[in-house]
UniProtKB/TrEMBL annotation:
InterPro entries registered for this protein in UniProt: CAT-like_dom_sf (IPR023213), O-acyltransferase_WSD1-like (IPR045034), O-acyltransferase_WSD1_C (IPR009721), O-acyltransferase_WSD1_N (IPR004255)
Family membership: Belongs to the long-chain O-acyltransferase family.
Pfam families: WS_DGAT_C, WS_DGAT_cat
Organism: uncultured bacterium A1Q1_fos_2111
Presence of the UniProt keyword Acyltransferase in the record: yes
Classification lineage: Bacteria, environmental samples
Reaction equation(s) it catalyzes: an acyl-CoA + a 1,2-diacyl-sn-glycerol = a triacyl-sn-glycerol + CoA
EC number: 2.3.1.20
The UniProt record lists the keyword Transferase: yes
Protein name per its UniProtKB record: diacylglycerol O-acyltransferase
Length: 454
């Protein structure tokens, strides 16, 4: 595991910090369950991570390793079910919630998929969940592209060979961990030498600039790691292990036009809708809330990245003002805060910082991250999806709704683009926002007003 993945794995000592990614995929039709099972079998062979479990190194400080599960059983990971209620979208979301809330079996690979057929209008659905240590949102889209096709009559892909199984004994695990730590130490020394030479050169050439740069970096590290154990909102103080799902959708072209009219982007409109909705939600409760704390993952995945999946993001937290004199001012404020978050000097230090933090006792690490993450009022994420229609075993995909993990926040609001739709998955902690239907309606109204500016 990478150090950041190992951190997400370790902090689940506190179940409130679980990092489960859930996707609800709506299908226009009912594919054959056998064909779907074969598709998931093929993907689990093409992407070995889907057949790997996590194994710790009890006699080493090396992070846990991924190891092919010798007892992999597709019947556990892929299941079929009938919908509850009448088979509406609301019934489907209610069905997905307990699936998402349940923790993973840590003795098995960290993913599950449930095929739901018999819904309204001849539709069906796939409920899929992955542990965040397998992939981030962008990597999840890459994983899905291994499962989906871009044409209804796409040629059948080869099943492929299953990844080889080798379960290390204790001696092999110790040696492997030692080699891993040695390589990591050598790499760290090499980077330190290079960075040290650069630092000396900077001090000689520009001592004042070097001092200011070092000071800015230290302040940035402090901002990233500072504990904020309580949300800013007086309404969203409580936390629980429960979730509630809801969805919204917006036309992509209209959202893009609204952003352009205000000098912003789709992401600016997305975040502005959250801020405007939160302001109206608090106002409806007679609360004059001035600020909220928002979290947002920053994608650092390079265009040249050749592997599917994996986590290539850094976390950011920032405070946003709820009250603004105009919509234009709101967009400008959002843009300023997100640019600052992306340009944090400490973003480049997340990997080495994770290495250091991982060496602390798990109890301390969990407490530190709990104080950081439970202080978020909202976690927001914008994931670019497929711009063209997709199919699974020949059946059209009607919509894809993403639900990010709460991981201590009061709500997680995630946007995923698909063709000309921006689908928003809303994951609420009902202890934080007990009137979820009302909250969603305030968000819907906020986005309607923003889109009217297109």
């Amino acid at each position: 595991m990478s150090d950041s993945d190992a951190l997400m794995w370790a902090i689940e000592k506190d179940p409130m910090l679980r990092s489960t990614i859930t996707t609800v995929m709506l299908l226009d039709g009912e594919p054959d369950v056998g064909s779907l099972r074969l598709a998931f079998d093929r993907v689990s062979r093409a992407i070995p991570r889907l057949r790997q479990r996590v194994r710790s190194n009890p006699l080493s400080i090396a992070p846990p390793r991924w190891e092919v599960d010798p007892n992999f059983d597709l019947r556990y990971h892929f299941r079929a079910a009938r919908p509850t209620g009448s088979g509406s979208i609301r019934d489907l979301l209610d069905m997905a919630v307990p699936v998402a809330m349940q923790g993973f079996d840590r003795a098995r690979p960290l993913w599950e998929a449930t095929y739901v057929n018999g819904m309204d209008n001849g539709q069906s659905a796939l409920l899929m969940k992955f542990h965040h240590s397998i992939t981030d949102g962008v990597g999840g889209v890459e994983l899905m592209m291994e499962l989906l096709d871009m044409a209804p009559d796409a040629p059948e892909r080869d099943l492929g060979d299953a990844p080889p199984v080798h379960v290390m004994n204790q001696a092999e695990r110790f040696i492997d961990a030692f080699v891993h730590e040695s390589k990591r130490g050598s790499s760290s020394i090499s980077r330190a030498a290079t960075n040290g030479a650069d630092t000396v050169r900077s001090i000689i050439e520009d001592p004042i600039g070097a001092y200011n740069s070092a000071s800015e970096t230290l302040q940035s590290v402090s901002r990233i790691l500072s504990p904020e154990s309580h949300p800013l909102s007086v309404l969203t103080q409580n936390r629980s292990l429960s979730s509630s799902f809801d969805v919204l959708s917006m036309p992509l072209d209209q959202t893009k036009a609204a952003g352009r009219s205000l000098g912003g982007s789709i992401n600016d409109i997305f975040l502005a809708g959250i801020v405007l909705g939160m302001d109206r939600y608090h106002g409806s409760h007679g609360v004059n809330q001035q600020r909220i704390r928002m979290g947002m993952p920053i994608n650092v995945r390079g265009a040249a990245s050749e592997h599917s999946g994996g986590n290539e993001w850094v976390p950011s937290r920032f405070v946003v003002n709820l009250r603004h004199s105009s919509t234009g001012d709101l967009i400008e404020h959002i843009r300023s805060r997100t640019i600052d978050a992306r340009n944090e000097p400490a973003n480049s230090l997340v990997a080495p910082l994770s290495n250091v933090i991982n060496r602390l006792p798990t109890t301390i690490v969990t407490q530190v991250f709990g104080m950081m993450m439970k202080g978020l009022d909202v976690q927001a994420s914008n994931v670019p999806g497929a711009p063209v229609p997709l199919y699974i075993t020949g059946t059209p995909i009607a919509a894809i709704y993403p639900f990010g993990p709460l991981a201590g926040a009061g709500t997680n609001i995630t946007l995923l683009s698909y063709v000309n739709a921006l689908n928003i998955g809303i994951n609420l902690d009902p202890a934080s926002i007990p009137d979820g239907d009302h909250f969603v309606e305030t968000l819907r109204g906020a986005y309607d007003d923003l889109l009217a500016l297109a």
